[in-house]
Amino acid sequence: METVLAERSARLRPLDLNHWMGRYQDADPEAPRVLVRALTPGLLRFFRCHVARKEEADDLLQETWLRIHRVRHTYRRGEPVLPWVYAIALRVRVDGYRRTSRIARHETPVEVFPEPSSRGLNLERPGVLPEFETLMAQLPDSQREVVTLLKVGGLTLEEVARATSSTVGAVKQKAHRAYDKLRSLLQAAPGRPAKSGAK
Amino acid sequence: MTCRQINSELSRGEELTPKAHDHLLACRPCRELFSTLDDRDDAPPSAALLARLESPLRRNLVPVAPLASTTRYFAGLLVIFLLVVALGAYLTRPFALFVVPPLQLGTLLAALALSAALLVDSLVRQMTPGSRHRIPPRVLAVALSVLLPLVAVSLFHVHRERNFCLRGWACFWVGLALAAFAVLPLGLLVRRGAILSPRLAGVATGMLAGLAGATALQLHCPNLNLLHILVWHLGVVALGAMGGLALRWKY
Q1: What interface predicted TM-score (ipTM) does this complex get?
Q2: Which residues of B touch A71 (CB under 8 A)?
């Protein structure tokens, strides 16, 4: 049963997501299961690109599903599901960031041994390409948001524009700037030979 | 093909064209970018995590009525706006229709009505996350705050006026009372959705209520002084926006 369900979730096309969202609003007990299995992998990757700790990503993921559940009436049948889900996920991320910042303001720093950072560019492995998450961490927030939605969430430009309450032109511009910055970061990574072939 | 065109290919997220493929073979920075974006550590979520996510959803599962169509909400918000304007004009009498030159009055009223229509459209879209916005809500709020005064400046002139504050206060309070009257039904409609940014939704709702007050004032008040219109009429819109920001509709 589990395997069949997982396979079915993985095969869900946008039209099926619409269908299952409708059934979710009708309180079909199967719907949450199918939707969670279909959408969680993308959401989890999205949050892992935006927060430093895995546990924090899991918490944000849980908060996102609870919020999706609470506001499921705001989904209009026939509209694309992914922009609706990721718009909520983006809001949860912003709220999570604010909450963390608020808590951090009241915390007193103590002297501890610094942990090796997983967020900076890898200086110890010259010649090896930095990881996706490492590179993403170097981008400004708005550009990182767009690139992760495009490359991790698998959304189209139009869907990203919807999820971010923006326009396709603005999304395209942010994505282009992000790719240019990523290229220069990759070139600046230690051990890279001089740039060649770029136009 | 250039690196810039590769950017477009990457954003499209479809299969690479043969030309793009050839470019990747020749251009190392693009090749590295492509492989970094493509080779991610995509560890799937654990079964325990999925179960943890599913259980609260299944436990509290009841049928919900989805939001009504955008047309209905659009019509609903617009009707509230028009009713408040009509009520205001009826109670205070539309003296301006007989005094203010038709071109000036018509242009300003058209600008106010267009702003209201744009705000209603934006609010309806804000009610459903992931909606397509013609103008991003933040941009719209800023644009209206700048454009409406500019329209007034282009139509009216500054005159010396006795009792500027005294006469202005009378207008201002009437406009504010109408805005306060409009904000309640508008807010009750909007708060059913608009879950993403209560502040932005609050600003748009407050602005719309303020516009209802300002439009009614514009129909009533025959004062042609630019400063009077800017401060005491359009001031209602500004105060409405600030009030909406303070209220920020909770869903």
Answers
A1: 0.82
A2: 129, 195, 251
Interchain proximity B197–A44, CB inside 8 Å: no
- In degrees and rounded to multiples of 5, residue B66 shows phi and psi of -65, 160
Spatial distance between the Cα atoms of B48 and A11, rounded to a whole number of angstroms:
21
CA atoms in the 13 A half-sphere facing the CB of A50: 32
- What is chain B's pLDDT, residue by residue, as a tens digit (251 residues)? 788 788 777 777 667 778 888 888 888 878 877 777 776 666 778 888 888 888 888 888 899 999 888 999 999 999 999 999 999 999 998 888 888 899 999 999 999 999 999 999 999 999 989 888 888 899 999 999 999 999 999 999 998 888 888 889 999 999 999 999 999 999 999 988 877 788 899 999 999 999 999 999 999 999 889 999 999 999 999 999 999 888 765 54
Contact residues for A100 (Cβ-Cβ < 8 A; gap 6+): A56
Does residue A50 come out as left (phi exceeding 0), alpha (psi in the -120 to 50 range) or beta?
alpha
Here the contacts of B134-141 (C-beta below 8 Å, separation 24 or greater) are B136/A165, B136/A166, B136/A167, B136/A170, B137/A165, B137/B197, B137/B200, B137/B201, B137/B204, B138/B200, B140/B204, B141/B200, B141/B203, B141/B204, B141/B207, B141/B241
- What distance in Å separates the CA atoms of residue A75 and residue B6, rounded to the nearest whole number? 35
Q: What does the alpha-carbon distance between residue B212 and residue B201 come to, in Å, rounded to a whole number?
A: 17
The model's pTM is 0.81
By Cβ distance, the residue of B66, B127, B196 closest to A91 is B196
The SS3 assignment for B157 reads strand
Q: Which of residues 40-69 of B touch A (CB under 8 A)?
A: 40-42, 44-45, 47, 49-50, 52-54, 56-58, 60-67, 69
How would you label B146-179 residue by residue, b for 16+ Cβ within 10 Å and e otherwise? Answer: eebbebbeebbeeeeeeebeebbeebbebbbebb
* SS3 state at B225: strand
